[in-house]
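Entry 14. Ran structure prediction on the chain below.
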Amino acid sequence: MRAAVVTENEKVEYQEIPEPEVKKGYVKVKVRYSGICGSDIPRVLNHGVHFYPIVLGHEFSGDVVEVGEGVTKVKVGDRVSGAPLVPCMKCSDCQKGNYSLCKHYSFIGSREQGSNADYVVIPEQNAVPFDKSVPYDQAAMFEPSTVALHGLFQNDYQGGEYVAILGGGTVGMFTMQWAKIFGSRKVVVFDISEERLALAKRLGADETVNTTEEDFMKKAMEITGNSGYGFVFETAGQVATMHMAFELAANKAHVCFIGTPHENLSFTPAQWENMNRKEFKLTGSWMSYSAPYPGKEWELTAHYFATGQLKFDPGFIYKKIPMSQAQEAFQLFKTPGLVKGKILLSNEED
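Output, structure tokens:
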């Protein structure tokens, strides 16, 4: 088969490699689309892989073309996305259903062959069927949707509160939608891009705030009657938005860091004192799994994609690029601010 293989730092070659074989309990998926995740960028551009050569890709959709012995969850012809985590199921965290915290995990597209190829072979339990009404490009967004929903579950999310979403990227847009689906007073999306804020409005955000404006914090607080936000979800992984989260939080709020920072993060005593004085709860959220594996995050995404309540918009996608041009696709990320939205690597004829 053909695959986009990372052979050395900054080098992705479209090569002929052996097609993976199906074994007991596994399924083979013909890949339609494979998304480039933010975590893939340093893997390619900053010596971030576990080994060379490797096929990356863990956000994908496709069709089951072969099933191994004993497989009952899916059949040939089913449309599936894939949960990329392969937990050991034996460690103490797995035994508690905390698969994201597994001590001995593998990961499709990072520690083993991924979906930037014609085919990927995954364990039966990792295959997530979706309805034929859901387009393949939308289904390649399963993983970011589940990451968003996991953040809500980590915070015992309840409706009736003002909700702040910091960051209008893919995960932020899904977090906003999940907050509305599960009930909210108002959901407000914060970003620096008017284009992303317009997308947020199309997808159902009640209000948007451009954080480049001089008086944005005043506007943001006025939306809540100056009481602050009962739930704050930071999805950008930026120092500025993490500081912002502490300021926007209401008394007794829930503040969740879904985004992963890549710079040193420090707080002044006055900034940190927000947590003391407001007595808010600060939590992290990592990946997107619950029991039974892969969890209700994946099951609910499949359901709400099919009903149309979890909306998809062309604005999610920056470009669809043929798999054969994966090298060129990754080079786009070297220009700061150029890529707005998801790049999907495509095996489609069109």
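Residues 142-154 form the longest helix (13 residues). Will compare against last week's run tomorrow.
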